[in-house]
Automatic annotation (TrEMBL):
UniProt feature, compositional bias: Polar residues: 1-10, 39-68
Record's protein name: Heat shock protein 9/12-domain-containing protein
Annotated keywords: Stress response
Domain of life: Eukaryota
UniProt cross-references to Pfam families, sorted A to Z: HSP9_HSP12 (PF04119)
Region annotated Disordered, chain positions: 1-86
Length: 86
């Protein structure tokens, strides 16, 4: 279960497993908006108020907001599923 205002781990996994080339423009835009708002929520929520699941999810998805590519993004790129922006 996701913390209030956060994207669930299931939603994150589903969005990251489908290659960008198979997503509609609407899906791509929706994923980008959800990812950005989840990143903002991650930044604003103190670590002490996050559930253990959300802390783990932030680590995997790279929501530490330090400008580094997340583990999920690295895996997508390694499988040739990532976009051309990186």
């Amino acid at each position: 279960m996701a913390d209030t205002g956060r994207q669930s781990m299931t939603d994150k996994a589903a969005a990251s497993m489908k290659p960008e080339s198979q997503k509609s423009m609407t899906e791509q835009a929706g994923d980008k908006v959800k990812g950005m708002s989840d990143s903002v929520a991650s930044t604003l929520q103190p670590q002490s108020e996050k559930s253990a699941t959300q802390k783990a999810g932030d680590t995997v998805s790279g929501n530490s907001n330090e400008g580094q590519e997340s583990l999920a993004e690295k895996a997508k790129h390694a499988m040739g599923m990532g976009g051309a922006e990186k």
